[in-house]
Amino acid sequence: MYCLKCGAKGNLYSNLCEDCFRKEREFARIPNHLTRMVCTECGDYRTGSTHWVNKFDGMQSLIESNLEFDPIVTDPLIDYPEFPDESNEQTIELNIIIFIDDIEIDVPLNFRLRTKYHVCDICSRKRGGYFEAIIQIRGDDRPVTPKEQEGVLAYLLKKIEEHSSDRMAFITKETVVKGGTDYHMGSTKFSKAVVRELQHRFGGKITETASIFGQKDGKDVYRHTFLLRLAKLRQGDVVSDGKHMYLVSSISKRFAYLKDLTTWRKIKVRYEHFKKYRVKADAKLHEQAVIIHSTEKEIQILHPETMKAVSIRLPDEFVRDGEETAVVSVDDELFLA
Ligand SMILES: [Zn+2]
Ligand SMILES: [Zn+2]
Fold first, then answer.
1. What is the CA radius of gyration of the chain?
2. What is the CATH number of domain 233-281?
3. What is the pLDDT at residue 206?
4. Is the pLDDT reported for residue 290 higher than 90?
5. In terms of pTM, does the model score above 0.70?
6. Which one of 107, 212, 221, 226 has the minimum C-beta count within 10 Å?
7. Which ranges of the chain does DSSP label H, i.e. alpha helix?
8. How far is the CA of 192 from the centre of ligand 2 (A)?
9. Of the ligands numbered here, which is closest to the C-alpha atom of 40?
10. Top CATH class, 18-118
11. Ligand nearest to the CA of 37
């Protein structure tokens, strides 16, 4: 077989010898100028209607959407260079490697990169105070503690970071109100999911309400409020039902597990019954109270605050281990913890 162009004999590629084939065909092309759009607020990259959170993905998408290949090319390898951060116009060089039958062809390309700055749609929404939903954090029969506030916010921020591909997952505004905090959120879907996760983590009850705030394409648009009322009882609380004193050993979505401080018997209490218990705010845990004396049924302990000897009847499960033991003091009473 002979090359149609030069008449050389040998392997042919689309009727041409290898040399003519390499010279004749334009395997790939890219426009002379490409413009990238970068958000001045969040650094987000935009290509057409697609957004990218980092420079490499943004540049890769910009290049891929502008590259054109000869139909003969399948599975090209694109060798991307380091992309600059600077905004001044510069030349970007690319190398494309293609494989056709038994030959490998390097196709060097270059283009001038321009950078334009703008404020992306999401950042302009945030600036404008846009929100679809509100997450309200309150306490049940008590205010939300500063530690819980911090915990909730840290958790929200962590989830937002994990959902960085959902650009509507953001907090527009955090407002501290009486008894808790309100979060204005960019996305209803994200809010709904995250409030469930908050409930799992912090316990409590969710109430969802919705109100119409406008119309879009002839349909009512709702704004949702997700109220998470954190459970009245918390792990580590000492509580009383009027007869017995309990330590809250753990909390789940629907139950609290209480340990009777006198008998060490464990009970499980449903969320709806939490209101029967009063939290003893002045209860104190002392990890190392001194044991003065102990018998099979009784133990004598030096009260860590009053420094008086107190006798306590031993719970069945109690095992003495050393000269000290953990106790809980509530008002004048002392319990083995
Ligand atoms: Zn030829
Ligand atoms: Zn932005």
1. 34
2. 2.30.30
3. 95
4. yes
5. no
6. 212
7. 18-24, 55-66, 121-127, 146-162, 188-202
8. 24
9. 2
10. mainly beta
11. 2
Give the number of the ligand closest to the Cα of residue 52. Answer: 2
The closest ligand to the CA of 14 turns out to be 1
Q: Report CA(12)–ligand 1 centroid distance (Å).
A: 8
120 Cα to the center of ligand 2, angstroms? 4
The predicted pLDDT at position 91 comes to 95
Q: Which bin fits 116, alpha (ψ -120 to 50), beta or left (φ > 0)?
A: beta
The bound ligand whose nearest atom lies closest to the alpha carbon of 16 is 1
- The separation between CA 251 and the C-alpha centre of its own chain, rounded to angstroms, equals 22
Q: Concatenate the DSSP letters of all residues of 145-189 into one string.
A: PHHHHHHHHHHHHHHHHHTTT-TT--EEEEEEETTEEEEEES-HH
Dist. CA 124 → ligand 2 center (Å): 7
Residue that is written with structure tokens 């010279």 in the block: 23
pLDDT value, residue 50? 77
**Mean pLDDT, rounded, for 5-18:** 92
| Region 220-248 average pLDDT | 92
The CATH class of the 282-337 domain is: mainly beta
Distance CA 278, CA 127 (A): 44
